[in-house]
Amino acid sequence: MSEVPQTDVSRPSALPTAHLLQRPSASQILVEQNSAEYLDTIEEEWNKKIDMEVETLVDGMVDLVSLASIGDKDKFRIAQEAFQAQSRAESMVRAANSLVSITHSMKLLLLLSDEAQIAHRRDAELKVVQTEREETRTKVASLLDELLRHPRTATGSQSEQISGENQTR
């Protein structure tokens, strides 16, 4: 009776840990990124999704136009093209719905985003534009001064030449 009964049930035990070919997980990568890099990554992902869905729509339209050829067709060929057109149309509807969903998500992100950050970016852009405006204004003023000075000296020398010619006559 001192025997331990044997069963099929597994007995949990500590497994040795191995560190072979461990790759950093996505959460570890995101923690190491700063805010700008993280936002750039997210933006790139959104752009890839949008590009993929738009490409699906374009390919679907190209296929539908190519299937719309007119000619002598038997019933089998007509049924086959109808099936292809229907499956293409379904994939295009899915892509369009996905684009609508992406648009909705982006609107929500814009509405719910940090208004202080938007205001800060707007103010920073305003300062840059005002600085550029002042630099351009001073440059234009200096160019205008140069432009107005040169014709005076040229017209002054011309008027001296004209008066000199009048005296010689």
Automatic annotation (TrEMBL):
Q: Which Pfam families would you find in this protein's record?
A: Med22
- Name the source organism: Amanita thiersii Skay4041
Q: Which UniProt keywords apply?
A: Nucleus, Transcription, Transcription regulation
Supply the PANTHER family for this chain: DNA-BINDING PROTEIN, POSSIBLE DNA-BINDING PROTEIN
Q: Which GO terms describe its biological process?
A: regulation of transcription by RNA polymerase II
Does this UniProt record's set of keywords contain Membrane?
no
> Which family does the record claim for this protein?
Belongs to the Mediator complex subunit 22 family.
Question: Can you list the GO cellular component terms from the UniProt entry?
Answer: mediator complex
Question: Where in the sequence is the signal peptide annotated?
Answer: none
- Region (Disordered) spans which residues? 149-169
TM ranges are: none
Q: Compositional bias (Polar residues) at which positions?
A: 154-169
Predominant location of this chain? nucleus
Write out the annotated subcellular location. Answer: Nucleus
A molecular function GO annotation: transcription coregulator activity
What protein is this chain from? Mediator of RNA polymerase II transcription subunit 22
The answer to whether keyword Nucleus applies is: yes
